[in-house]
Every structure is written in C-alpha cells, then in structure tokens.
C-alpha cells in the first residue's frame, strides 16, 4: 500500500515537473517571437552600423519648431521646442555632417539633432536642450555611428538597439528555454530509471 502511494506521488511530481518544463519552453518561444517582430526589425533596418569618431564643429539652437506627430496620433502630441542642430566632422571621411541622437530622432524630425520628450513646462525643455548643447561644446570629440554604405550621409550618437542590447534581449528566453529542456530531460531520465528498476 505504501509502495503504491509512493509511486503515485512520484508520478504526480513527474507530471508537474514535465508541465513546468513544457511551460518554460512555450514561454521562451513566445518571447522569441515577440523579440523577433519588435526588436529585430529595428536592428536590421538600421544602416548606422560602423563606429567612428566625430568632432563637433558647431552646436546651434534655432528658433522653436513643432514636433511632428506620427501617423494616427492626436494633435495634442504636437508641441513646440527649441531646435538643436549639431554639425560634426566625420573622421572616417572628413565630411561635415549633421548628428542625430538616435535613428528615431531622424524619423521624428530631420531638422533637429535632438527631439525631447513631451514636457508640460517649456522652460524645462529649453533648459534641457541648452544643457545638451553645452555638453557638446565641452566634449568636442566622441564616438558616433555612420552608414558605411553611404545611404545616409548623417550620423547618430547612439543606436536604439546595439548588438549588446540584442544579445541581452535574447539572453532571458534562452536561459528559460535551456532550463525547460533540462527539466524535461531530467524527468524522462527519471522515468526511464524507474521503468528499468521495476523491470529488474
């Protein structure tokens, strides 16, 4: 009687462990799919892949411009802000090009190097942009990214999804997938050993 209870408890434990392993594998597959349709397209679409050194030539703040809203957004998302334009000397080619913060900055407003997040206080926006401009004037030389194919003549300060960020995004689903597979393998080995022991 006691032996049957132990066998039943063992089978229940194996079933739960197997369900846990299969659940972890399924969740990791969903995470892979989500990363594949969100982050990977932005990473592959970016042409600014080569790092070089940029030297600031001028950093000017123009008159206020309107932040263009994206398709389908509300009119209230449009707000005026000072337009910061940073021109740099590209060490790789010696050209004078315009610097943008990220790939997204160029899409949001190609006239400005920096597009701030919407802030209710216009003084805070102005102070933020003036601080960024002064930092560029202090630090004349810094790393930047350019398009080696020549499709885009401008440069960006930082990539939205660098290779390290992409690897980090795939790290957690990979660990979950590995852990789930390991649990399934251990359960199968335990079942095989139990059947082998019973047969002997």
UniProtKB/TrEMBL annotation:
Coiled-coil ranges per UniProt: none
One annotated Gene Ontology cellular component of this protein: voltage-gated potassium channel complex
Keyword Zinc-finger: no
UniProt-listed InterPro entries: K_chnl_Ca-activ_BK_bsu (IPR003930)
Protein keywords: Glycoprotein, Ion channel, Ion transport, Membrane, Transmembrane, Transmembrane helix, Transport
Cellular localization per UniProt: Membrane
Pfam families in alphabetical order: CaKB (PF03185)
Transmembrane segments: 20-43, 166-187
Its membrane topology: Multi-pass membrane protein
Gene Ontology BP annotations: detection of calcium ion
PANTHER family: CALCIUM-ACTIVATED POTASSIUM CHANNEL SUBUNIT BETA (PTHR10258), CALCIUM-ACTIVATED POTASSIUM CHANNEL SUBUNIT BETA-1 (PTHR10258:SF1)
The family this protein is said to belong to: Belongs to the KCNMB (TC 8.A.14.1) family. KCNMB1 subfamily.
Name of the protein described by the UniProt record: KCMB1 protein
Species of origin: Himantopus himantopus (Black-winged stilt)
């Amino acid at each position: 009687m006691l032996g049957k209870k132990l066998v039943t408890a063992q089978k229940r434990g194996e079933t739960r462990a197997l369900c846990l392993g299969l659940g972890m594998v399924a969740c990791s597959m969903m995470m892979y799919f989500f990363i594949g349709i969100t982050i990977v397209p932005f990473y592959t679409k970016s042409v600014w892949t080569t790092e070089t050194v940029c030297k600031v030539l001028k950093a000017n703040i123009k008159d206020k411009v309107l932040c263009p809203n994206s398709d389908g957004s509300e009119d209230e998302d449009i707000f005026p802000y000072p337009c910061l334009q940073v021109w740099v000397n590209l060490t790789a080619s010696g050209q004078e090009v315009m610097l943008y913060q990220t790939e997204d900055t160029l899409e949001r407003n190609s006239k400005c190097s920096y597009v701030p997040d919407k802030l209710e206080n216009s003084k805070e926006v102005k102070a933020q942009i003036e601080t960024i401009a002064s930092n560029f004037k202090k630090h004349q030389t810094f790393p930047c990214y350019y398009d080696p194919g020549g499709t885009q003549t401008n440069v960006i300060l930082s990539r939205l999804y660098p290779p390290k960020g992409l690897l980090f995004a795939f790290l957690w689903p990979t660990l979950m997938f590995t852990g789930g597979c390991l649990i399934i393998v251990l359960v199968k080995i335990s079942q095989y050993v139990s059947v082998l022991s019973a047969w002997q």
